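**Polypeptide and fold**
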Amino acid sequence: MIGAIIGDIVGSTFEYVGNKTKDFILFESGSAITDDSILTMAVFCALEKCSGNYERLSEYTANEILRWYKKYPNPSGAYGSGFENWCLNSLEAGKIQPPYNSYGNGAAMRVSPVAYFANSLEHCKELSRKVTKVTHNHPEGIKGAEATAVAIYMALNGKSKNEIREYIENNYYPLNKLCNDIRKDYQFDTTCQGTVPQSIQAFLEAINYEDAIRITISLGGDADTMGAITGAIAEAFFGIPKIIEEKVFDYLDDNCKQVVKRMIEKK
């Protein structure tokens, strides 16, 4: 969770740049949380509100998303247009609107908290689907979020990189290109199928948390979202150096600081 937020912050200044190098300032001037961090916090709060009973998780997730959207209507990088329309229509109607069949990578960038509340791999998948389908109900949106959540859960529970790779390849995506090959012609992409496997591959090639963030941002894609996805998996596997973890508080208001403190306690 914290890994996702830090990855988002680091990637925020590279979103439309097409950066192709690992050699960059980690916290560049102008770095900020974006919708990726805001919605990760919304999902975390929804899971908290369930108090261990997740029957109404989808309802809580939708309500928390709208609450956070109202509080942070203009984040750095902006919300996706389909998501923003869903929020505005839900608020105008006074009730949650149907999902809009999205396969955007917003499904994957916000899902990391489910791995910390799940009590088994299958439970992790179930929670992932519940927090995703309120907006991203396209099969590719469901798959992208679930693959991300599964990778995080497996990393948290001591699985090796080879075990994570094998499970993802057998159940979600082929991981048959190294990042050096991906980087050559990879471009900005906001779909799950065009960012999640690349983000997982970046984690698999990394030697530590910071390296994972540098690799995924060096691919030249949707940098803040890929930072969030790769960062969440890398945190679960490697942990985050204290000096980097503490840096997150420089970019948060008091409301977000309280949520991130609870995330750290949950972790």
User: Anything to note?
Assistant: The CA atoms of residues 10 and 27 lie 6 Å apart. The mean pLDDT is 97. DSSP finds 15 helices and no strands in the chain. The first helix runs from residue 2 to 11.
